[in-house]
Specification:
This protein is of the alpha+beta class. Strands 1-2-3-4-5-7-6 form a seven-stranded mixed sheet, with helices on both faces. Strand 2 and strand 3 form a beta hairpin. Helix 1 packs antiparallel against helix 2.
């Protein structure tokens, strides 16, 4: 994969974010609308709880994005609301680069836990495998949540920070 660069997103990226979501062929129109509402909230309103991160290829084209933020009323827990890579860029490591950058930023913010929810539908099997291969564990499942026979699967990853004084020899 060529050089990829992660950076914040601007309101002008809205159309491309919609293209990325639709290219995956996983999200219904209503889901794309929800993602764009969060995009609008994060890109148009300063000091929002939604952080937007874009992944750009070496030509400067936006090929993926993530939206994440702190979970209200928790101790350093965050939710990953959306992560998507354009279908043409999938399978070459772009999703891993994007997720790693989200995790790096969360660690820098002293995050304790990242929560991701996804569907149990068969067409989400690759998504669930993606998270599992990156150290996420299934923490909960809510049966028939999204629709009959479509469970909500909740993955989590804990971020361990070094104990104070760890590694110091006296």
């Amino acid at each position: 994969m060529s050089a990829l660069r992660a950076a914040g997103l601007q309101p002008t990226h809205r159309g491309r974010v919609a293209e990325i979501l639709r290219s995956t062929q996983l999200f219904r129109d209503e889901e794309v609308d929800v993602a764009l509402e969060l995009f609008d909230e994060g890109s148009l309103k300063p000091n929002t709880d939604y952080s937007l991160l874009g992944l750009f290829d070496d030509a400067g084209a936006l090929i993926g994005f993530a939206c994440y933020g702190p979970t209200p009323d928790t101790d350093r827990t965050y939710d990953l609301y959306w992560i998507a890579v354009h279908a043409e860029a999938q399978g070459a490591g772009a999703g891993t680069v994007l997720l790693n950058e989200v995790e790096r930023r969360l660690r820098d913010d002293d995050a304790r836990l990242l929560v991701i929810e996804t569907s149990s539908r068969a067409d989400y099997a690759a998504t669930r495998g993606f998270y599992a291969r990156r150290g996420y564990v299934e923490a909960a499942r809510v049966g028939h949540f999204y629709a009959p026979d479509d469970d909500r699967i909740i993955f989590t990853k804990r971020f361990v920070r070094p104990r104070e004084g760890a590694g110091v020899v006296s």
